[in-house]
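Ops channel
N.P.: pipeline sanity check, posting one input/output pair.
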């Protein structure tokens, strides 16, 4: 009788344990997939940050060059005004 009860409990519990183990494996696989996806996203973000930094550097360079050109033009115009006609 005791053995029958024990066997019945094992028969009921064992399939549930197997389901839980399978679920844990699926969760682990899903977590690994998420981790890989996050790593890819981080790499893309790093690339985007570098591109933004490059664009910022180029924009700053263009602004500096523009100001230098305008200053040179202004100085030449002022020199022309100072020259006797």
């Amino acid at each position: 009788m005791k053995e029958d009860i024990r066997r019945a409990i094992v028969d009921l519990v064992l399939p549930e344990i197997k389901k839980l183990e399978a679920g844990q494996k699926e969760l682990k696989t899903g977590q690994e997939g998420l981790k890989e996806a996050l790593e890819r996203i981080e790499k893309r973000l790093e690339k985007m940050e570098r591109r933004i930094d490059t664009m910022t550097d180029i924009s700053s360079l263009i602004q500096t060059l523009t100001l230098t050109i305008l200053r040179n033009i202004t100085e030449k115009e002022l020199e022309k005004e100072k020259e006797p006609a």
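N.P.: looks fine end to end. The chain has a mean pLDDT of 93.
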